């Protein structure tokens, strides 16, 4: 694969040398285009030695080759790392003052930005607007890692590890190639979700009681992350709605962070119209405090403990089904049910009733409890279908279960209608 590796002017540029090595060792043809500022951190000799190619950032070098047009036109993947705040701003504005800017304007292949900057820069409204602009144009902008920054500070803004960027880039290139293959009628078996957009929710919602306390649940987000990776491997573009999680979101997704059930509802309804598949794997709180204190609720010796009145949260899964039916959409909607048996029925009996109430096409059911499912690496599920097809069991690692769920989704889509 022909890869353009753009290098921005940040201290994290030294990590990109390892990313370049990963690309070349995997057999890819890599052309490195550093910005002028990047060469102040890592010299061109390093990039030339690791890529085996001459390196330039000027549109006036090798003019006869028309590199400012040719490189972007011929690329099959463009990766920019570290993508500094300045570089993101220039890319969003379409500036072409150097070879990398021209290449980005010419590229018609998948483009991935791996940001790295100080937390305040990443969180600044201007940077957030630039990121949203790039994403709206089809570029993938990874979320930066959280941790120690250049100085004594810590927070979001670290460059993701080279292995994570490599994984995201390969997945993105695979999705892009799968879309092209689907358009030409090839590659459908290898990438069964080629050309599809999948929205996945994951983690557990938190419902605020005061600025310090909240009502939450034990969901780790591991199953949602596994589902996102399986969907990416199947060729899908993935929108990932992340509530609180104990694990990092997967690389290569369009990440939307949410906190509460109401925020998740808003994000899910916004993503639904452009999605082919919606997988609601998040553990959504059924209730939230009716009143949220603006200040921390204090414990006082002369007063009884406060009473917390709860109100119901909206049924997001059911709302998604209703909105689809009302609009005439054709999204395949998949719910998750964490169930326990009781005197009124066993796990599957409760799950069958829930499937009928929700109206979704598939319901993935698992039995939960202390030491079961939440936070664990192994799980077992039963997939129930609204059309009455017999229950399908899957067990093993959460990656194994995710692959089984994605395979079932692909089979359902193929049975109903082809992509596009």
Write down how many β-strands occur, each being a DSSP E stretch of 2 or more residues: 19
**Mass-distribution shape:** globular
Cα-atom radius of gyration: 24 Å
Reported for the largest beta sheet, the result is:
8 strands, mixed
Looking at the structure, the CATH topology of the largest domain is: Rossmann fold
> Strand pairing plus helix content: what structural class?
alpha/beta
Number of helices: 13
Report the average pLDDT across residues.
Answer: 89
Strand order of the largest sheet: 12-11-8-13-16-17-18-19
Uncertain stretches: 178-188, 369-373
Strand content: 15-25%
Q: How many structural domains are formed by the residues?
A: 2
Q: What is the share of helical residues?
A: 25-40%
CATH superfamily of the largest domain: CoaB-like
Highest CATH level, the class of the largest domain: Alpha Beta
């Amino acid at each position: 694969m022909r890869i353009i590796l753009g290098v921005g002017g940040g201290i994290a540029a030294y990590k990109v040398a390892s990313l370049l090595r990963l690309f070349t060792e995997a057999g890819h043809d890599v052309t490195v285009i550093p910005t002028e500022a990047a060469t102040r951190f890592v010299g061109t000799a390093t990039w030339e030695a690791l890529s085996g190619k001459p390196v330039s950032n000027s549109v006036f070098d090798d003019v006869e080759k028309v590199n400012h047009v040719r490189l972007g036109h011929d690329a099959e993947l463009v990766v920019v790392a570290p993508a500094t705040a300045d570089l993101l701003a220039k890319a969003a504005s379409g500036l072409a003052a150097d070879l990398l800017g021209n290449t980005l304007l010419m590229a018609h292949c998948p483009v991935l930005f791996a940001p790295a900057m100080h937390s305040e820069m990443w969180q600044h409204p201007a940077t957030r607007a630039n990121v949203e602009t790039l994403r709206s144009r089809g570029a993938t902008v990874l979320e930066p890692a959280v941790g120690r920054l250049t100085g004594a500070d810590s927070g979001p803004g670290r460059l993701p590890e080279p292995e994570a960027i490599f994984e995201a880039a390969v997945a993105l290139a695979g999705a892009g190639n799968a879309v092209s293959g689907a358009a030409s009628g090839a590659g459908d078996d290898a990438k069964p979700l080629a050309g599809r957009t999948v929205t996945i929710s994951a983690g557990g919602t938190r419902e605020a009681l005061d600025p310090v306390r909240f009502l939450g649940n034990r969901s780790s987000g591991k199953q949602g992350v596994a589902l996102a990776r399986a969907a990416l491997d199947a060729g899908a573009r993935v929108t990932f709605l992340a509530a609180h999680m104990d694990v990092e979101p997967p690389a290569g997704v369009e990440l939307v962070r949410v906190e509460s059930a109401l925020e998740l509802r808003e994000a899910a309804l916004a993503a639904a119209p452009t999605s082919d598949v919606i997988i609601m794997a998040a553990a959504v709180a059924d209730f939230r405090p009716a009143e949220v204190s603006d200040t921390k609720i204090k414990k006082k010796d002369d007063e009884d403990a406060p009473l917390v009145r709860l109100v119901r949260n909206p049924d997001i899964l059911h709302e998604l089904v209703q909105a689809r039916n009302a609009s005439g959409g054709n999204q395949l909607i998949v719910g998750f049910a964490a169930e326990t048996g009781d005197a009124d029925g066993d796990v599957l009996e409760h799950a069958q009733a829930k499937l009928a109430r929700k109206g979704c096409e598939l319901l993935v059911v698992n039995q939960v409890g202390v030491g079961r499912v939440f936070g664990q690496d192994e799980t077992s599920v039963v997939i129930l279908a609204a059309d009455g097809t017999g229950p399908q069991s899957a067990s093993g690692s959460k990656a194994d279960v995710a692959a089984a769920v994605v395979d079932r989704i692909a089979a359902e889509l193929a049975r109903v209608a082809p992509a596009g």
